[in-house]
Amino acid sequence: MNPELRIGTPADAPAVHQLIAANVDNGHLLPRTEDEIAMHIERFVIAVVDGELIGCGELAPLSDAVAEVRSLVVDERWRGQGTGAALVNAVSDRGRALGFLTLSAFTHQPAHFVRLGFSIVPHAWVPEKIAHDCAGCALFRRCGQYAVSLALRRVRVCGWST
Fold first, then answer.
1. What is the pLDDT of residues 70-125, one digit of tens each?
2. Please, are residues 92 and 98 in contact by the beta-carbon 8 Å criterion?
3. CB atoms within 10 A of CB 24
């Protein structure tokens, strides 16, 4: 069954928080408070099946040009069915529509993102993320995550299209 993808609403905040909290211990997600999620719920793309929230991903702005896929998670019972890819594609489409030039993510499993067109890049290529989240993290410089990046639109630089 294909999940319905939609933008999060305030009523989704508790379920999003519960899903994220249930997956923090494996070390692949940063903890989020329910208040923080509620404050930014409109940035989340939600996957729902028969009224049950089964996955989510956030489009988190890091600057005017760069956004990040954050809090990407699919309920364990629904993994391996393409829901994660659908969420990343929906977040990418939303980022493109909002005018971001680049979408980034920090992940322990870059292959999932590479299959969707992202490239593994040096962390230094995403200074917005480092300033926003990494510099204050206890695992800074030793977290084991990969930085991945996706160009959302082509930019002309000195006559060249990149």
1. 999 999 999 999 999 999 999 999 999 999 999 999 898 899 999 999 999 987 77
2. no
3. 13
- Closest C-alpha to 87, from 6, 155, 153: 6
SS3 of the chain: the string is CCCEEEECCHHHHHHHHHHHHCCCCCCCCCCCCHHHHHHCHHHEEEEEECCEEEEEEEEEECCCCEEEEEEEEECHHHCCCCHHHHHHHHHHHHHHHCCCCEEEEEECCHHHHHCCCCEEECHHHCHHHHHHHHCCCCCCCCCCCEEEEEECCCCEECCEEC
- The confidence score (pLDDT) of residue 31 equals 85
* Residue 89 structure tokens: 């594609």
CATH number at 134 reads: 3.40.630.30
Give how many domains the chain has, as a whole number: 1
Domain extent at residue 69: 4-161
